[in-house]
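Handoff note, outgoing to incoming analyst
You'll be picking up this chain. Sequence as last confirmed:
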Amino acid sequence: MKPRESEHRPSLLISPFCLVLHERSYPGQPGCSPMVLLDGPVDEGLAITYVTPRIIVVSSPSSGTDAAYRSSLNALARHLKTKHAMDYRVWNVGRQRGDLARGVGTENLIEVGWPCSLAPPLDRLCAVSKSFEQWMNGAPSRVVLIHSKGDAQRAAVLVSAFMHYNVICANDDSIEERFSMQRYIERYLGAASGSPSNKRYLNYFTSLLSGKTRVNPSPVYLKKFTLSRMPGRLVTFKIYERLQPVYLTVPM
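Most recent structure output, in case you need it:
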């Protein structure tokens, strides 16, 4: 039997000053006491969240300093090697960072990032979901770690995409783990949070997986758009193709 969500969710706060690990016991395993390495604030370093026992999100505030980030990254690397040995892979949804590659190891790092102001490409959501599945199917001890510096919403997008992919395409789906993922998703992509474009593209992705929507094999051309009822405002449109800006209008 798999542990209940309330029993297996550890939480970890890491900073250059403090590493605090609160871990509730699993069934059949002894409980762990909180471990404090050093005293000090924890609001500038990395925070690690076990969304499920095998899906981990690491995030840090955009206001944190690079020095705090690099120091807490070293603590994170030690934690991963101690707790998960070599059974982890890191998917980075932010910009590429040399310090991240050095901290977790280039062999363990997969770059899948996109700008935080844009929605991710649908084919990337599909590719990442498949890579999650393939990695975790390799061994029951393997874990997925999603790294998101400055914006946990992008991590929530991948968690949401994988949850829907697992429900529709995979045959290993736990109700308890799905509930844990949904709780995390609602925190960053719920009714009161999350960008509309991320939510819209996740709906597109789910519709494609279920077969409700099919990819148009022919090119689609945007010839014009009409804007009305916006008096007293200047509006500029920027058009992207596969995350690259291809056209910018003058203010109108």
